[in-house]
Amino acid sequence: MIRRLLIPTVAVGLLATSACTDNAPAPAPGDDAAAARVLTVAASDTECTVSAAEAPSGTITFKVTNDGTKINEFYLLGEDGLRIVAEVENIGPGLTRDLVLTAPTGTYFTACKPGMVGDGIRAGFTVTDSGEPVGPTGEDADLVKEADTQYASYVRDQVDQLLVKTQQFAQLVTERKDDEARALYADARVHWERVETVAESFGDLDPQMDAREADLEEGDEFTGWHRLEKDLWPERAEDYTAMTDAERTEIADKLVADTQTLYDRTRDMTFSASDIANGAKGLLDEVATGKVTGEEEYWSRTDLWDFQANVDGARVAWEGLRPLLQRKDKALDEQIATAFTDLQTLLDAQRKGDGFVTYDELSEDQVKELSDAVNALSEPLSKIAGVILA
Amino acid sequence: MSDLSRRGLFGAAAVGGAAAGALALANAASRPEEAASTGVDRAYPYYGEHQAGIVTPAQDRMHFAAFDVAYGVDRAGLVSLLRDWTDAAARMTQGGSAGELDPMSGPYDAPPQDTGEAYGLPPSGLTITFGFGPTLFVDGAGKDRFGIGPRRPEALERLPHFVADNLDPALSDGDLCIQACADDPQVAVHAVRNLTRIAFGRAVLRWSQLGFGRTSSTSVTQDTPRNLFGFKDGTMGLRGEQTELIDEHVWVPADADPAAAWLAGGSYLVARKIKMQIETWDRAPMREQETIVGRTKREGAPLSGGEEFDQPDFALTGREGNPLVDPASHVALGHPDHNGGVHMLRRGYNYVDGNDQLGRLSAGLFFIAFVTDPRTHYIPMQSRMSRNDLMQEYLQHIGSGLWAVPPGVREGEFVGQALFA
User: Fold this and answer.
1) CATH of span A32-136
2) What ipTM was estimated for this complex?
């Protein structure tokens, strides 16, 4: 159980191209074109002073400083004054944020919006032809929309299956058909793990459904998957008292009810490109901190099922973004593809029957190999959001 | 040469070892006339109203050690250890030898009293702070080994299990603790090594921790350092100069606990070894990092605006009415406004203990706080943080301890003497 952060990202409808970071590449000394692409914006409550009214096409950085007393925003708008090319929001008084974007030749408007209201303080802005290639941007918005549609439907589908299998599992547990319950446990959880970052974004459900015992403090009730896991695999538990029928029924019913809530809440979720990319990264974080170390499924040792499911979910997220990523950074996309293949090869080597070997059957070297492959994939995967949003 | 300093000795030794030895004997227990005030020459007085190493401006390095009293040692044995530790600490903090003799002199057929690796090094701002753990009063078997059980302060109880704690008993607790801080790591390590040696037969080292860089500032003259997440840490922590707040939030008042009057003027030391998931943190977007902390990474300014030391405005909302500082951010949950107005004096250090078997840095923050009462000044806050802090995803608490820190020592006394009176 981890509380996963789904940070709402900027702008809607159109491709949000902002990357509000402080670590934009500094221009090399003497590199005039690069220097001309770094602009400062002094934004006060009444003024919006951009250090230049033009910049050469390419990756442009606006360093926006809010000198005023109100919360400010900065926009780059298209020629029609309506289309948002990029924006940075929620700049507190006194703070500086970078807006990094890729802009082709054309005429634009800059706008500060002190107090986040009105049309903003606008000025014309020109991107001149630097002669350097700027990736196509026209269809990006459509690609983001497609990725959202695809990912949202994947999430719905996984939660559908989760609900059905959770109901079956709950019934088996309640009827004390323990062999069958054990056989279904990992298989049902696969659907949770595939969309784990989404499920975890519901801070009320996650602790009730997926908390491990150590995640609790005195007075907290231990419920959810891992409570039942412990009762089905009590071998590693010290001084363990088995649950009564009534206790089992209570926990199982609650798990089904919580899964139903999750189902209801995921029916009309939407995802920005950044949500999807960071979700993929988050799933690999889950692998790195919970599964590869055998901490997630302490009682059942079925960590590799979860491992595979997290990787599945990350792969689907990446695949949805691929058309966009390939336009922006083909090399990164290829690096990720290779890393997915390498990791999958290692996982496939641990398959046994319909599933995997248990965690305790892995040697230290095998765990290390898997961990190295996760790192090799996670690092490029973490770069997707920055690349597709710039 | 009124001061017995390792450097001073070095100079004297160059002239003649025997002379230096004699000098060491003569000055062993004396207090320096005047503490040097700058850089590594700085020496903080050992004796005083409070133990040094609490409001002392945080030194750059730390060696922390927890001890258990050895099996079969009685009250007299414990008292003799505290006496010897006090004398050695008084000497070493002034740049002197751990023993009465100079590190490089003494009977030729005897092992030197001082291990010698700090020989020639200046005092380096060394402070040595002692603490008494709950088990010193009543051990795990419920036994009061030293006849001090009834004088255990009520607040001195093992910290409760917090959400997601993954404590290693081998990195937690202990009958006694020593915090040695200095601006030279060799000097801090030298102190713990020699105090450990002095204790053999009376107390054994249970666990210890090196901190390579301070993550707190305890003086307004110090810049706020960064933790291993790359953020300024402890901006809101108490500074030694805030004497009224220090009196209220750090020192134990005389009337705090009738059974434990001996602790008046002391404090409680909370230690938490907090492992950071460095690798996954480094893959988090800047947006996420700043949201989690609630401050900008560059300046440390609250996301509601202003500069580092400006107060966060938790009510300020941006788009769609969302607060600019997330209510579950680290700064929001740790802020005195959300903790009944309590302040902590933080004195933590960054650590790296090599790496784990999977090639990940075993790194994090060795958190130390001094508070007037852990029940009001630490436990409620940590309980909320462990449950709600967005940063928890990247943290794991793996070690823990709580010690009562006796008040300062007067010349001729030993640390915690009032407890045994």
Assistant:
1) 2.60.40.420
2) 0.82
